[in-house]
Protein 1
Amino acid sequence: MNKKILSVMMASVMALSIAACASEDEDTAPVVLSGGQTAESAEGSGAQEAGETAAASADAYVFTYNGIEIRMNAPANGIIEALGDGYTYFEAPSCAYEGMDKVYTYNSIVVRSYTMDGEDYIAAVELKDDTVATAEGIRIGSTEDEVRAAYGEDGQPGTAGIEYTLGDSFISFIFENGKVVAITYTAIVG
């Protein structure tokens, strides 16, 4: 299956799951906007070229996109502003947290945030294609052996793949026919 199609399908499924939560509240409909126009009219610095890397801090995984560090559980507003306005935006009432779940889809990544105590925080970063990679050089299309060589043999089995936990975050790799088809950094909230 084409990797880009699989990534789009996964993003669509996640967006539909958010929309399903929203349908439980008949007074609130999901908001889908594009080009950086958010419900709050957030301003950004403009779209940036690809040139992604990733890194891990001592207490959480951090993904770097266009020179901007995206740390799991970090306040989201400054990160989203720094990433610029070259994204498509979707929001819906959260099933798990107070406020809204927000999804920012850029060319090569999807950034998700959650709201807690009136502030948005980074919930997840999904890599959409093989133009972005982790600091260890793992990207969509890498082999399972390459993942294990880069991250170690101590990963935990996850849904159709393997997960590695670091502090208050984890990174998961999903495989199909021995190749990575999805990479997601996720915050551990609680």
Note: The first strand starts at residue 31 and ends at 34.
Protein 2
Amino acid sequence: MGKTQQIQKEMMAALKAKDTRRKDALSLMLSTLKAKAKDERRDLTEEEENALILKEIKQTKETRDSAPADRKDIFEECEFRIAVLSEFAPKEMSVEEIQQAVQNVLEQLGISSPTPKEKGIIMKTLMPLVKGKADGKLVNQVVGELLK
């Protein structure tokens, strides 16, 4: 069962349980997924669904972070939406897993002691492997620490 069907099932359960906050959060995500599928004129792959869910979480975090300090209602609503959407997001890679992926890429490229000049080629090879599984900023930070 794809993420779209899972979200639709959970939304119906929230509707039956009269949990309007959860239903609203899931409804927004479902409409985003369905709109993308309609634009593509086909069913989305799991990777595409995951990318949309992660994008929605990122946008919600940005909304939360840009909200004025005195607007606790916006902050709480964003936190709730992030918690609900995180249930469907793919598991993020840990720092150790990212470091292992970087080591694998270094071995693949034959680089024993990387220099800052080689960061571009390392990132170019690494990012397709971790896309949708790890935050790009975190990956960049791990690679940056390795090059120091």
Note: The chain has a mean pLDDT of 90.
Protein 3
Amino acid sequence: MFITTLRSNTIKFICITALSFLVVAALVVFVPTYESTSAPSKVNYQKVYSNSDRIDFISQFGWNVNQTPIEEVEVTIPSEFDTVYVGYNDIQKTQGLDLAKYRGKEVVRYTYQVTNYEDYEGVVYINLLVYRNKIIGGDVCSADSAGFIHGFEKSGDDV
């Protein structure tokens, strides 16, 4: 015959452990998963080798542009970000990009004129920053000095 004794502390510990396990299991089973609508969609920023690759990249956001870039220039991402670059990098971060990794690097900026920007009469450009055949940043902006700038998405908030 076996005699076992359980102290009240042992019983409390077992009950609390079991209850904790049940709560975690219930959360996993019953809490729905939500997909964030503000998160960038599955955009491929890699393998941008030619002008047609850049045009294809731009068109996935719904933009139509002139087929030839109006400007193709090498620029250097500054080593130290001033307030302007901090704000510009915030736009990049909303797109799932970050220019901080490319500080001091030489990149190529391609500028295209957008031909289908709705509800705006002025000239609109899209800029792509490309480093080693990868898009590392960019924006859609107006040519006006008091205009707007936002990320690639058409629904982007004007800044």
Note: The longest helix spans residues 8-30.
Protein 4
Amino acid sequence: MKFSIVTTCKNRLSHLKESLPAMVSQPDCEVIVVDFTCSEGTADFVRTHYPQARVVVVEGRDYFSNWEARNIGAAAATGEWLVFVDADIILSAGCAAWLADNVKPGNLIKFPPGLQLERLRSRVSAISLNNLQGFLVVERSAFDRAGGYDELLKGWGAGGDVDIQNALGFLNIGKSFLPEDVVERIIEHGDDLRFAHTGGSFRRSFIQNLLYRELKRFLFPILGVPIALETRKKIFVAAVKAATMAKDRLPSARAEVILSRRPVEMRRRLGHPNSEIQISLRAVVDHLEVPQAAPANPGAPSQQPPPKPGVPTA
């Protein structure tokens, strides 16, 4: 089995009913459906109507983590290549055939970045406003080397797809792009479904996950990929704290994580018996405040436009 299509469902059975037929009809592919504590009877529906698909049931989750669900699906897959597809994506009939002709070892395949996809999108295919960054095709061996998706990432917009691409990039995994016509259409839906089961505010979730990903990205070449879980937990705690401090729309969010701490050599001879050396890392997201318009004053010099939101720096 060369390709394993992995899709996940948390109360999106209506979407899966539309998208699953196109997945199971792809030649030479196995399909893994992860029922992530879905209350709509997803597992029973798939087993009854699409017995050729494999169902993995995850119980006891009152939240939705696409990254945890995808890791569970990947663990059940047997293909050389993993094809991660969301339940609102309807594949074209020729998707697997295109992949069979174009996948290359040491390479991942995805859609172009969102802005580039907007420029390239044709009126015929009408891919929609979904930028499809979660549609990822990756060699199983590379996925395992990267440690899979990071399950500490939480909330909608957490960027797990960006995070794993960062990790794969530091493993020298190349990147190529999917054409529009591997997707027939996207099932349009509102933000109510996107935010369901993710918890917390989007702003806080986005900031904490952005800081966390950026700190990790800086540490990949230093600590290796994957980064040890205990270290990731420290980074995540620092990112959550920073996002919490920024909840009142402070002008910036700053996350600092201590990577190591040890006593200074010959500290008693120095006369400082409690001295220690500490290595830490800080990431900052600047200009989080919405600039307030200055009061009209015809005699005042013209104002420069406010700076654009900054990029986290480590």
Note: The chain has ten helices and eleven strands.
